[in-house]
């Protein structure tokens, strides 16, 4: 417990991109990297320290069914000009899982279709 308190106090003084990371995960990661000597804690938040957080948002876009193909920087530029962005979805308003419930399409995950789970039979 004593060690955890020391890490918390130390992380309060870590600065990134000109602001203090008090209580934020990147600040804690930097403190852990300093304490343990393991750079992976800090490397995990690489783009936060470089003030390029849109990289993480773009990764979410690329991995999602709805936003795949959209570029975050383009959408942000349109938003700054006051141009609304309408994501092309199958239904409006968006109904999550419409294709799966109405057309019996499989639920896709990061590892593929989740239609059959081992030992549990079909999912429907």
Question: What's the helix and strand layout?
Answer:
Elements: H1 2-12, E1 15-16, E2 19-20, H2 25-36, H3 40-43, H4 46-49, H5 54-63, H6 72-80, H7 98-102, E3 108-109, E4 112-113, E5 116-117, E6 121-122
Verbal overview:
The chain is mainly alpha-helical and 124 residues long. The chain folds into two domains: 2-49, no CATH class; 54-117, no CATH class. It contains seven helices and six strands, in the order αββααααααββββ. The chain has helices at 2-12, 25-36, 40-43, 46-49, 54-63, 72-80, 98-102; strands spanning 15-16, 19-20, 108-109, 112-113, 116-117, 121-122. The chain has a two-stranded antiparallel ribbon. Strand 3 (108-109) and strand 4 form a beta hairpin. The longest helix has 12 residues, at 25-36. It is flat and about 55 Å long. The termini are far apart. The model is unreliable at 1-18 (pLDDT under 50).
Number of helices: 7
User: Oligomeric state of the chains?
Assistant: single chain
Instruction: Domain count, please report it.
Output: 2
Strand order of the largest sheet: 1-2
State the end-to-end CA separation. 46 Å
Q: Looking at the structure, what is the overall shape? A: flat
Strands, count: 6
Low-confidence spans: 1-18
Query: What is the H/E string?
Result: HEEHHHHHHEEEE
Note the beta-strand portion: 5-15%
Q: How big is the Rg?
A: 21 Å
The portion of residues assigned to helices is: 40-55%
pLDDT averaged over residues: 76
